[in-house]
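Quick one before lunch.
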Amino acid sequence: MAFQHMIESERCKGCGLCVEFCPKKVLEITKIVNAKGHFPAYQARPEDCIHCTMCCIICPDVAIQIKEIKEETAD
Ligand code: SF4
Ligand code: SF4
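Model of the iron/sulfur cluster complex:
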């Protein structure tokens, strides 16, 4: 099963909670400002993400989503 981890950078206020709580230290804060003047989080080490959803739960702005991606199956 494959998952896609998405951060809506325009919703993010760069509070750093997700960075702090990620058990795999996947997330960091960018140095690039968004339209609201915040520095959003991004996946610095996506290969380490275990899709635990901790960052989605902890984010006060509901800026992070994990979606299941349908994998192609050879029949
Ligand atoms: S889903 Fe879990 S491992 Fe992946 S970035 Fe969020 S908190 Fe970290
Ligand atoms: S917890 Fe949410 S608002 Fe805070 S840095 Fe992470 S994605 Fe942005």
